[in-house]
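Hey L., structure's done. Input below.
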Amino acid sequence: MRICTFHLGDMVLALPSDDVREVIRHDAPTPVPLAPPDVVGLISLRGEMATVVDLARRLGRAPPPAAGIGLVLRRERGTVCVRADRAGDVIDADDASFDPPPETLSGPARDLVRGTFKVGDGLVLLLDGSRI
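Output:
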């Protein structure tokens, strides 16, 4: 499986590369009144509106002081831009190193994490892009 890795604080996360349309540096989003706390606002991508989601908040973590990048996801219900600290590599993850989510994973992360990959000496959490 080809995955697009990215960093959020001390975590290394990934999405299937087929889910990621592009990685951008985006301007400050326009706030949306009455939106959930993890929806930061809207940005315009070449005339198309994208909802900006703060993944740190969605995972129950403190939001970063400033997002460095946005991962633009392909979605049936519109375009979503996920904030992250920095991009990682696009890698071919070995299916043999895939494990289901750890039993100790709880809270909001339990719904978003599809599983884990062992990459080098570290662990990468594979997210379900359709649930973001």
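The longest helix spans residues 108-112. The chain is about 5% helix and 50% strand.

-- N.
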